[in-house]
Amino acid sequence: MLFHYHYWTPYLEETEKFYTELGFTVHQRIGRLNGSFQSFNPPLVWEDFRENPPLFRIIEMKKGNINVTVGYGKKVMFDHIGFFVSKEEHGIVCEKARNLGWKVEEDERRTFISTPYGFRIELQTHPDVLAAGDAAIEKMILSIRKEGLEKDLHRLFNRDVRVFSVLDEEINVQQVVINGIVFVKDPNGVSIWSI
User: Fold this and answer.
1) Taking Cα atoms as reference points, which of 63, 72, 70, 89 lies closest to residue 178?
2) Alpha helix stretches (DSSP H) within the chain
3) Which CATH number covers residue 68?
4) Number of independent structural domains in the chain
5) pLDDT tens-digit profile of 39-56?
6) Is residue 161 helix, strand or coil?
C-alpha cells in the first residue's frame, strides 16, 4: 500500500499548518538544538520554540493510512515515497530490487531502495507509521527524467501500485489523490486532489 512521501523544505511551519488543516495530526518533531537532537513533539506548538528555533530533521504527520514527513532544506526537494508491506512482501521486493541492480539499505526500522529515477522508495512493515481512519493515497503522479517507472514498480510489487510518472527536468511529486480531500496545493507545490 502506498502510504507516504517525504520532502526537504524551507517551509516547515507552513507545511505543518497546511496538513493539520487537512486533518493530519503531528506525531513527532525532531530537531537539532544546541548541538544535539531533541524532540519537540505535541503538545508543544511553534510558539513554544520560536525564540530559539531548532533545525528540524523531521516533522511527521499522519491521517489514516497516510504519513507525510518533511525536514528542513534550503530549497524544496522531494526525497522518497513509501509503501507499507508485509514482512513476506518486504523480502520479495528487496530481492527483486537487488536483481534490478538497485541499492537496498535495510535496518530494523525501515528499508530504503535507491531507484535510477532520482528518488528512493521506503519499505515499511511497522503499523505504528499509520494512524486510525480511512484516509488513503489513491494515486500519485511523479515528475521524473526518464521513462520506465511504472514498469519497474510493477516488477517490484507484482501489481500496479498507482504511482504514475510524467517526464520533466525536475524530480518531484506533482499530484497526490487522497480520498475525501478537495483540490488544494501544499506550500511545496504538491497538488492534492480528491477522488
Assistant:
1) 63
2) 12-21, 87-99, 149-157
3) 3.10.180.10
4) 1
5) 999 999 999 998 988 999
6) coil
